[in-house]
Amino acid sequence: MGGEVVVLAYDPEWARQFELLKAYVQPALSDLAVGIEHVGSTSVPGLAAKPIVDIDVTLAAPADVRTAVGRLAELGYVHEGDLGMAGREAFIPPAGLPWHHLYAYAADHPEYRRHLLFRDYLRSHPEEVQAYGELKRRLVERFRHNRAAYSEAKGEFVSERLRRAGWEG
Length: 169
Prior knowledge:
single chain, alpha+beta, Beta Polymerase, domain 2, 5-stranded mixed beta sheet, globular
């Protein structure tokens, strides 16, 4: 069910990896992207995480998505479509780059706003970082071979922290 789930202690290399990946895609999207953000657990200092950098590319307008898909393809990214989330485009990274998740959205997409809100909430609440890391370690023992169940089991924690951060989505 999606492969083995691995959660590691925070590694500062994740931030450096993001910066390298950002530098790789930014020139191709410089006139379209209003932001290239490191999101997900690897973007929160001190947080245990699956060792996969998540990147959100935000585009000025929904019409820019098609152009961005083409430019990312020129860099070697393989477009996977929206993977069930309308307005979000997912990409498989080119061979030779570290495995990462790259998504492109229009800047007003609610999932993008949710990602930033959760990341920024955790960054400003170190006690929550510790609690979330401990939860993830417990869950990985329980759901090591079931990625969907692992993700679902984190849902209540994430939803509650988003609510505390002001999310109304």
